[in-house]
Each structure stands twice: as C-alpha cells, then as structure tokens.
C-alpha cells in the first residue's frame, strides 16, 4: 500500500547512489522512506500493514520492495510495534526525583505506565508488576544527598526478582551499592548518571541513552516481534525517541519555539522545543520534551476522545460514540466517512495541546505513591505548565492527518490553536505545517550519521518558516 513513490531517481534506487532505507514499524502500519543521503532527497516512500501477528519483517520487506530499492547502503528502523516501550519510574519524592524520572522516560520514547514515589512495600511492588513494564527507571536523591530510599527500593526490586531491566539513575554515591544489590539477585541493571544531580538541575541525556540501549538489547527481542536476530539488528530506537531527535534537530536550526502534534491510533503525542528561561521548577525543566495522551487516539482509544470532549466541555460528540466504539473494536477499519476520523483527530489534538500546555498529568497509566514519610505530595498533582506563546511553528503528524491531505490537516491543527477556552495561552504567531511526506521519523533515524540529509528532509515540512543551514 504505497502513499508516495518517486522513481525519477531510478539510478539511486538501483543501487548506483547512496540511499538509505528508513522504516518506522508501527503498531498498525510499517512506513518506509528511501533517502538519498548524499543529496538529502526523498527518493521513494511506501507502507504496508505491520505483520505483528506473524513476523514484522514480512511487512517491512514488502514495504521496502514496494519502493523499488534494490541495494540500499543501509537500513535503519524505529519501532513502536507490540505496544512500544513500557516504562515504570520508581523515585524518592513525587515532586522532585520521581517527577524528573517521569519526564526523562517520556523523552526517551517510553510510555510511562507506572510511577511510584517513596519506599516500596509489597503492595507497591505488586502494583509495579501489574503495570507490566519493559524497563524500570530507578531514581532518587541528588548527588551526595539522601540515598536511603534509593537503597531500599533497589533491595525491594531485587527481592521481587521482576527480571525486568532496571536503569539506575539516582544518587551517584550510592550507585555501585545499588547496582551490586540488583545484579547479585539476578536483576539486569544498567548504570547511568543521575537524572537530577542537584535541585533544579535536570540531566536527562545519559538516562535517555541508557533507556534506548535497554530498548534495543532487551525489549525488542523480548516482544518476539520477529524470529531470529535480523529485526533487532536493524532497530535504532523507539519511534517517539527518534521523532524527538528530529524535533531537537529542527529546533536547533529554526527561529523560535516549535510544537509537533502527532495524532495516532492509540495515543496523541505532543512534542515541544522551547527556549529556556530562568524560572525553572525544583525538578528541573526539560525544554525539549514530550507528553503522551494514552486515552486519545482515532482507533484503539477512540472512545476516550468522546469522553475527553465531555470532560473538557467541547462540542458534543455523542453522535460519534458508535463510530468510536467500532474503531476501537476493529483498529484496522477504514471508515466510510473520513470526516469522522478528522473530527476525532480535531478533539484529540485540542485536548492533547490543552494538557501539554497546562501541565496536566498525561493519561498513560497508573500513578501511585508508595507509603512512607518521604512522599510529600499528592501523586496526581499537576506538573508545571508550559509557556507556548512564543511557538512559531506547529507541525501536525500522524496517519489520519497525512491521509487527509495538507489542507484538511491544517484545519485540524488550526482549530486547536484557536482554542480560547482551553485554559492556556495560545501561540501568538505560529505557522502550521503538516508532515505529509512523513519525514520526522526518517530525519531522526539519520540525524546522528547523516545530519545534513536529515536537515534536508526537515526542510520539506514548512512552506514559509525559515530553517537555517
């Protein structure tokens, strides 16, 4: 099922030039882009239903074959198939280290399914286990500060023998002891620098890198998406992590703050890259971040969109309830009326932007606190709001927008940007672009080794917004 194919560059497709295949293996569709990394051109694109019920390589190979490419120089893959990366955060204080760990998990492309703060007890471990995380991010204490809770939680995780990889990113002075406690009990443990080395200082990159490595080494193979090692050898990261890399690259070469609103079948993700200011909160501010709304999607979670509309007092969508239920029951359903999908997408984008800007706790899973005196706040308390008034570029992404065409997709995003009743300050002057060629994921895959080609792909996004060389 091809959404675009350009065979003008046939010599490149036939292997005479330097082309790289970039693929996003999603839960529903596998999208493939062929990129001339020397000229930075998008040569061909294709998609195929993801064959998660058999072997994801079947769908990937079919999509690559549809592009016409014969001998690519390399194949880079990102994946959110099989539910993507499920991460649990175990921290010290709800408003400090656990909150920072939560934000770092989102920036690493994870869906944070559980957050616990304070000393774990047996019930807390049971709740953690029931969340079925692929990875646990263990945080707690600033460097040289409190380490008692970090040690206690490491002991609890070790005794529980979850057999889930644990990234240790807390007080560095206790790191060796914590690592020893976990490995001695057979729990895979990966060391990282502290996510919060000092109050108000966030250090997300090392933990984000460690989570990515765990995803590649443990999670992809553990999900049994494919037989044999080939698929795991191709995957470079979780799709949301790769997209955030592209957003960061775009932000580095753009004037002003930017947003990406990605409306998917199961979630709506919002990425923001903002200019730092001096008013950081106690947990440190991630100026380039992502939120995930696990109840807002146009397929698996479509009924959640209808419910969210009622909670947010948006125009009544009760007439869409049957269609939303049908889409959740059959996510592969191609609706006879695309207008229904666009109405669902419009509400999903509007609510997701409200939550992202207001600092609402995203609806991604259980948010708990462990008992004990270390917990000093309600675990459902909202996070710090984001100031989006200086956003200059808003990019709409996701299959529902891509297939609707640029004009209809722009209307969906424009509606969200004129949402005066949402309780957040709207961007004062923003251009809207739509990722109709699906270049964000390929650009993120290419950013490390072919930054010029990645930037060239990103220049396809805006029609007027300046992207500097």
Helix content: 25-40%
Report strand order across the widest sheet: 1-4-3-2-5-11
Protein structure class: alpha/beta
State mean pLDDT (0 to 100 scale). Answer: 85
Principal-axis shape: globular
Report the biggest beta sheet as strand number plus sense, adding barrel if it closes: 6 strands, mixed
What number of domains? 3
Please name the CATH architecture of the largest domain: 2-Layer Sandwich
Return Rg in Å. 22 Å
Uncertain parts: 1-8, 363-382, 464-469
Distance between the termini: 34 Å
Total helices: the number is 16
CATH topology of the largest domain: Nucleotidyltransferase, domain 5
Could you walk me through the main structural features you see in this protein, from its secondary elements to its overall organization?
This protein folds into three domains: 4-81, 2-Layer Sandwich (Nucleotidyltransferase, domain 5), CATH 3.30.420; 83-222, 3-Layer(aba) Sandwich (Rossmann fold); 254-360 and 382-436, Nucleotidyltransferase, domain 5. The protein is α/β, with parallel strands linked by helices. It is globular and about 55 Å long. It is built from 16 helices and 17 strands. Strands 1-4-3-2-5-11 form a six-stranded mixed β-sheet. A six-stranded parallel β-sheet has the order 10-9-8-6-7-15, with helices on both faces. The protein has a five-stranded mixed β-sheet with strand order 14-13-12-16-17, with helices on both faces. A hairpin with a 3-residue loop joins strand 2 and strand 3 (29-36). Helix 3 (97-107) crosses helix 7 (204-222) and helix 5 (148-160) runs parallel beside helix 6.
